[in-house]
Amino acid sequence: MAMFEGLADKLQDTLKKLRGKGKIDEADVTAAMREVRLALLAADVNLKVVKDFVGRVKERAVGQEVLASLTPGQQVVKVVYDELVALMGGDTARINLASRPPTVIMLVGLQGAGKTTTAAKLGLFLRKQGRRPLLVACDVYRPAAIKQLEVLGEQLDLPVFNLGTEVSPVDIAVKAIAEADSQGRDVVVLDTAGRLHINEELMDELRAIKVRVKPQEILLVVDAMTGQDAVNVAAAFNRDLEINGVVLTKLDGDARGGAALSIKAVTGCPIKLAGVGEKADALEPFHPDRMASRILGMGDVLTLIEKAQAAVDADTIREMEMKIRKADFNLEDFLAQMQQMKKMGPMDQLLGMLPGMNKMKALKDVEIDEKEMKHIEAIILSMTPEERRNPQVLKDSRKRRIAKGSGTSVQKVNQLIKNFEQTRKLMKQFADFRGPKGPGKGGSKGKGKAKGGFRLPFFKV
User: Fold this and answer.
1) Looking at the whole model, is its pTM more than 0.85?
2) 122 is in which domain, residue-wise?
3) Contact, 350 vs 344, CB < 8 A?
4) Backbone φ, ψ for residue 238 (5° rounding)
5) Angle at the Cα of 46 (from 45 to 48), degrees rounded to 5?
6) Mean of pLDDT values over 261-267
7) Do 232 and 314 share a domain, yes or no?
8) Helices (DSSP H) in 268-300: which residue ranges?
9) Is residue 94 part of a domain?
10) Same domain for 7 and 80?
11) Are both 177 and 226 inside the same structural domain?
């Protein structure tokens, strides 16, 4: 969660001081809220939003629910968490669906915010939920937008409705809905035109589309990297179009995060979806409670579990566990495990969802090298089936052949084999821990402990 990293560090450091105190008074709360205020302002959160947030937290933190509790420091953390969740919208906001299909979703926003890419991602997101979406190219002013949507649609096997640049966007939208109805498509996603800035011509056109097709959802796509500008854009579009929600793109970027914390409070419109990467499946529902938990260093285990359930096959897990217990875990299994982890997303994002991981010193020294993972994949794929299943046969001549075939070096091949053997031993020891005889093999103490020096081969320390 690169976007909130600076804010998260400051808030966690501030609240840690309170958490450790057995007793706190109003002066302690005031000092802490001063630091919270500075942290939020540094994160580019709207000034009025900061004042209101700090005021609410302070009012609750000096009340009886905190000062009279057995663990007042922890109670303050809970108050901050509750108010962060409320600030970002409270409950998770869902996409409105029509009682009678097709549901019409109209994407609006400035040029460059990522509307066309978001339209394709949204189509894939809806298809995974059992819907049959139709993408519609309504940006007649930018031929590249039409071509981009068609290319993305082809890549994702999603149909795209396109009438070229000579037909008005309003007519395209109307005819697209009729087309969806005839084809049994239950969701229509309109990719409308944007401008470099808000102007009356743009708004007139969007209002005309809204009047004719009466969309169930008008979603504003804004770039989270633009900070407070994103909030100003959201306020302007909401004033003219009465938008239903916001799609915040580039939430995986390294901006300060103020937009995510300000939009709901300033516009009243919830963030419904968040773009968290460049891949087509990197569009997720925005969960205020999970985001608040991550900001405060409590992790996001629910999202991690959902990613695992979507990417990892339960039967494969059981089969792998049996192989580990029997010490039958080979390089083919190692490759399969790594490929399933890759489906879940970037490794640093996954680690960031674990409680407290962003504060662990060990993690600070670890660089997760995605290129190294590709090298490992290339090395294993350059082996014969026999070599993957029985690495002991890998002598010097075979290693040279594998290094040449994978475009790496014999040194890298040796390093992979060494790390794999360490991984296999460690996994066997973890499996022994879970056995019926207690820790270690045969129930003896200490035998199940992992030896030092182990590291995953795609971690660099």
Assistant:
1) no
2) 103-299
3) yes
4) -65, -35
5) 130
6) 85
7) no
8) 288-295
9) no
10) yes
11) yes
